[in-house]
Design goal:
Length: 384
């Protein structure tokens, strides 16, 4: 196995051992991985390869960081109790150093940045990192519980990233959830978890990042709970309208038909969805509710002797307009064709078309408005 040695503190008394795979996702685009047919090259400055005599390409590499127990225990709330006890990691080995070996879950460059910060070597930290790199740093910080050692630089890095929380489910969204939790940023955390609640089409996946199971459970519970309430209220509304006698059948059929059509477009009608609401987005249902509009319903009224049955009269103020073409549907007015004629509205009007208004349409508008539940993200204070 190839070993890369990184000296953080020349007087250090512990080796932090990080195994990692050769094809590990490397830091940023300007730092390429080693060629497939080459051994890992010696790093400059304080890096040394201890595997120059290796004859076969290893499947993994170990990076050994020489650090100070004193600095480590002051910064890491995980390390402090461990080195206060009688654990194998606290016992000096043949080389006179304690050895603390981790699972292959950390990126070595991210780990090095965290160790530099813990040892006060801030001149070795960059002013800018990418979102992916910051997420890798956050993984280390979260595991060692040493966020205060990176607090100042984390603020700089996050500010540089700006308000760039994605509006869809993707790897970057998961990174934002992790970063905002680890470095205690309630605004981005709430925004990112809100997107997760709105846009997930099933149980939320952390994309391989160590996001707390409790957070995932709460994202799923919030999404499923809101969907259950919305769908139940929409189905109840349809049933109440169908069973009611508040208006004539044309009106009720119009309202119910439009509601069912809109619900079917979001897969919220039949078969009636249930938990965990796979393939159903909360954003799709709330969007349908937000954009829902009842089309104008126009019904014929009265009758007029001597007027062809295909003639419609449209009433506006004191005038009437007649045309043999059917009026166009819209949501508030009727388009009058150029060939229509205008004359004074008689005191007794025969057959005409009028916009239908009733309490049922007011009820639907009110119910739809009430269903526009404001979806909030999770509160960071519930987890820290």
């Amino acid at each position: 196995m190839a070993v890369i040695y990184v000296e953080i503190d020349p007087d250090g008394d512990i080796l932090m051992i990080l195994p990692h795979f050769i094809d590990l996702a490397w830091w940023d685009e300007d730092i390429p991985p080693p060629d497939d047919d080459e051994e890992p090259k010696e790093a400059d400055d304080d890096r040394q390869s201890l595997a120059s005599e290796a004859t076969e390409e290893p499947s993994t590499i170990e990076t050994h960081f020489k650090v100070s127990v004193k600095h480590l225990t002051m910064a890491s709330r995980r390390a402090k109790p461990m080195f206060a006890g009688n654990y194998i990691e606290t016992q000096p080995q043949a080389d006179g150093l304690c050895h603390w070996k981790f699972e292959p879950i950390f990126h070595p460059r991210a780990f090095e940045y965290v160790m530099n910060a813990i040892h006060g070597q801030t001149q070795k930290l960059p002013n800018v990192v990418s979102l992916q790199s910051l997420a890798l740093i956050a993984v280390v910080v979260d595991d060692l519980d040493c966020r205060h050692a990176l607090w100042f630089f984390a603020d700089i890095w996050i500010d540089h990233l700006g308000a760039s929380v994605p509006d869809k489910i993707c790897s970057d969204l998961c990174r934002w959830i992790l970063i905002s939790f680890v470095f205690e940023k309630p605004g981005p955390f709430k925004s990112a978890t809100r997107v997760a609640i709105l846009e997930s089409k099933g149980p939320f996946s952390p994309d391989g990042l160590p996001i707390r199971p409790k957070m995932i459970e709460m994202i799923d519970a919030e999404r499923e709970g809101l969907l259950e309430v919305l769908i139940a209220q929409l189905h109840s509304l349809i049933q109440r309208i169908s069973d009611g006698v508040t208006c004539h059948v044309e009106c009720r059929s119009n309202v119910v038909g439009i509601l069912i059509h809109e619900m079917m477009s979001t897969k919220a009608f039949s078969p009636r969805p249930c938990r965990p609401f796979v393939a159903l987005q909360l954003s799709a249902v709330t969007g349908m509710i937000r954009d829902f509009k009842l089309p104008g319903l126009y019904v014929s009224r009265g009758g007029r002797d001597g007027v062809p049955t295909n003639t419609w009269f449209v009433c506006r103020t004191k005038y009437i307009y007649s045309t043999t073409q059917d009026p166009m549907d819209d949501c508030g007015d009727i388009e009058i064709y150029m060939q229509s004629t205008r004359k004074e509205r008689p005191s007794t009007l025969g057959r005409y078309v009028g916009r239908h208004e009733c309490q049922l349409q007011t009820l639907v508008s009110s119910e739809i408005t009430n269903l526009q539940t404001k979806v909030n993200g999770l509160e960071l204070s519930d987890f820290v």
